[in-house]
Amino acid sequence: MVKFAAFALLALVRVAIAIPAYQSLGGLSQREVDLFIRQNPPVVIPNPPGPLVDDSIRMVNDADHPFIAPGPNDMRGPCPGLNTLASHGYLPRNGIATPGQLVDAIQEGFNLGNNFAKFLVYQGFLINGNPLTNLISIGGKSPLTGPDPPAPAIVGGLNTHGTFEGDTSMTRSDAVIGDNHNFNETLFSQFVDFSTRFGVNGTYDINAAAELRNQRIQQSMAENPEFVFVAPRILSAYSEAIFALIFFVDGRQNNRQLTMDAARDFFDLQHMPEGFNRQPAAVDFPVVDPLVTTIFNQHPLTPGVNQGAGNFIPQPQTPVLSDFCGIYEDFVTRIVKGLYPNPQGPLLDALNLNLNFFFEGIAGRGSGCTQVFPYGQPSNASTPSAPAATGSAIMPTVSVTPGSNMTESAATVMPTISATPVSGSNFTGSAVIPAASATASSNSTGSNSTTST
Ligand SMILES: *[C@@H]1O[C@H](CO)[C@@H](O)[C@H](O)[C@H]1NC(C)=O
Ligand SMILES: *[C@@H]1O[C@H](CO)[C@@H](O)[C@H](O)[C@H]1NC(C)=O
Ligand SMILES: *[C@@H]1O[C@H](CO)[C@@H](O)[C@H](O)[C@H]1NC(C)=O
Ligand SMILES: *[C@@H]1O[C@H](CO)[C@@H](O)[C@H](O)[C@H]1NC(C)=O
Ligand SMILES: *[C@@H]1O[C@H](CO)[C@@H](O)[C@H](O)[C@H]1NC(C)=O
Ligand SMILES: *[C@@H]1O[C@H](CO)[C@@H](O)[C@H](O)[C@H]1NC(C)=O
Ligand SMILES: *[C@@H]1O[C@H](CO)[C@@H](O)[C@H](O)[C@H]1NC(C)=O
Fold first, then answer.
1. Does residue 436 have its Cβ closer than 6 Å to ligand 6?
2. Residue 271: which domain range?
3. Secondary structure element (H or E) that encloses residue 246, with its range
4. Does residue 453 lie in a domain region?
5. Pairwise CA distance, residues 182 & 78, whole Å
6. For residue range 18-36, what is the model confidence (pLDDT) as tens digits?
7. Which cofactor does it need (predicted)?
8. Residue whose CA lies nearest to ligand 5 atom number 7
């Protein structure tokens, strides 16, 4: 009960301050969604890639992945890591990708572990991606994530404030204060300053990270009248602060000390340093978690929100940083459900599938969280599957329509979506469920959606 009250309170807070952020596909009437689906048949959604077969150290700024600066129509956004991967061709250079491509790219390019990769990617995808086309922009809104569903849908990409992108970033302004997705030189100067003052040899290390993390929070509290610092942002804010000292440090040094030259390369130029090597082994929750805890413990904080600049109101009833399962539950029940209050048919199926993939990452952390089903447990929900044997395998084991027995027919139409970018519209290159059947509600998908194109 206490927790539900907390959700209700927060929901009000969010509505008051963040309405524009919450306009993805969510909020459409069923009629509008049906119409959209008839006109834009949903793609078949493959399982996410498994762990890398070879997760050893490797030079990743190699001849196959040359840096090419983004063109005017290429999307770049708030995450310097993803921007860099796109500019080196680990992601489609236009910045439009499937979740599977994102998992592949962060594993290949930076050596994120599979559970951690799925956790990050599906969290972002569930709120900023297009579940019906299985595409997301790593920056702003783009027509390449598929034809727009009817208003008020936006499918806004990672730039969408208050979703994946959040306040108190290290090198990006708060949305209310300035540009929340482009590199900010003033903030980078502060990054350099804190590294000089607190880091070993002027590097961005764990101490610099702890101090700068706290400084940015204090700044947002003081300056941003609409500062929001509750789950899930509390987790991503502390995590981001340590990503740079893990993933942006050359794997041959691997000393968790980021030089300012390398920081400039990644944050500003979105460029891997010459000869850059990724991490020497896959980096998963067991590596990340203790570092996150370390910087948090140097400046512990109760989650909260500003009601006016300088007026930070703690929200102790919301999940705290150490309550990983609580943050997961809050995310699924409050944020995902808030975006998609009453999905049906293929939209519901796609959401349930992505929620499963998200939970695979959660379960892989080993914290004993129980899966939450915001739309009820599908009659035969796929349990998190074992990791795929290869980095790019598509395992056709998860049915697109939980509750039906069309698993095998779904498999037969499984597209080669992970191998080739599907960034064009009209969904060329991927098999689709025929439009007529796609409009069937979820209780009749078994009889209607078995035909493949
Ligand atoms: C950059 O950050 C500074 C310091 O927070 C802020 O005053 C400025 O408005 C930001 N610039 C942009 C373009 O967001
Ligand atoms: C600082 O950098 C110098 C020169 O690179 C190096 O010799 C020294 O060991 C470094 N100090 C620490 C504490 O890492
Ligand atoms: C649910 O799926 C499992 C595994 O695919 C299968 O063994 C089982 O028979 C299914 N149950 C129902 C009710 O379809
Ligand atoms: C689907 O499952 C139902 C109940 O499990 C079964 O009666 C039916 O024969 C199955 N249909 C197919 C095509 O396998
Ligand atoms: C989809 O394909 C049709 C026919 O090939 C074409 O006329 C239309 O412009 C395409 N739509 C988009 C958004 O590219
Ligand atoms: C689904 O199939 C049934 C019979 O197989 C058909 O009557 C119905 O119109 C179909 N529904 C859709 C939306 O195609
Ligand atoms: C299931 O299908 C029947 C017949 O098409 C329809 O009347 C009913 O509303 C559907 N139930 C749900 C939950 O969609």
1. yes
2. 2-448
3. helix 233-247
4. no
5. 6
6. 223 333 455 556 677 677 7
7. heme b
8. 426
